[in-house]
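Suppose a colleague, Dr. K., hands you the sequence of a protein chain of 355 amino acids and asks what its three-dimensional shape might be. Before reaching for any lab equipment, you can write down a predicted structure in token form. Begin with the sequence itself:
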Amino acid sequence: MPASPPSDLAFVPFVSVQNMMRLIHHRGIENALRELAEYIEEDFRRWPSFNKTPRVASHSADGVIELMPTSDGESYGFKYVNGHPKNTAEGLQTVTAFGVLAEVSSGYPVLLSEMTLLTALRTAATSAMVARRLAPGGARCMAMIGNGAQAEFQALAMKAIVGIDEVRLYDIDPAATRKAQRNLASTGLTVTACASAQEAILGAQIITTCTADKQYATILTDNMVGAGVHINAIGGDCPGKTELHPGILARSEVFVEYPPQTRIEGEIQQMPEDFPVTEFWEVLVGTAKGRTSDQQITLFDSVGFAIEDFSALRCLRDWLKGTSYFERLDMIADPDDPRDLFGMLQRAAPSEDAA
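The predicted structure, expressed as tokens, is then:
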């Protein structure tokens, strides 16, 4: 009996890098960031309904490879992601990623996607979604310290979601700053290249730190940070990697995604285990306070959590409806009789005539 052609159940939508770029331009980058932020906020508001676990990390001297899983009981998602700071010197991306969304009821995947671009978008959308609640009212200027692959996404998300109109750039590599300045030139933002982190934060109400080196570092010293700012700390995201002086943490109201993960990976790994933090989802649902005064320093100690990737995949799946920005991959073995997987394989053997 000849092999049956694959059924529709065998095919999984796959979003390649090329199709992701086409899709984002189709929606508009700033609009896509706003829409992603809405999905992320919606899932933060139902935070207790998710299965949560710190990411599964494999560390080496070269970097880290991680799996980030979560489920809301109806859908399951995970992301594969790496972090290899040395890659840039070798002409490679520091971060690469892909992700899967699946149905809990059957276990069948319903979406496979690149997530290098999507992670950059969701990280920026999360930062801005939080800053919209924690930054001082009327914030118009952002300092972007670390001008690598994430910088432009962060600036555009803060513009689209928070309303900033000025970004001040600094990186220890002037070429990175020139790159970011060039890429942001036609976005409507006033862009200033600065010679130091100290210069970059002058007049900024939002300070974003996003450096890549895997080490304990002090990008911001305690005396650099005055009252009333919001700090978006996204570079410290694994054990042994920080950016802020502990004195800044001691003076700030610190907000996190998932404390068991952040205490291992975030800026607060420098602090005692009982150092007080607020889970940001509680701010959204009203069980905890956000910014309470103009003089308060708020700090989002963001390490990236699986629910944000789940939100991004959920958003992406909705974006794809009625479009052609995906391919159908024959990924799932789907025999006519689910008990006869071997028979399906046998029937696919080349015939003697074909040989």
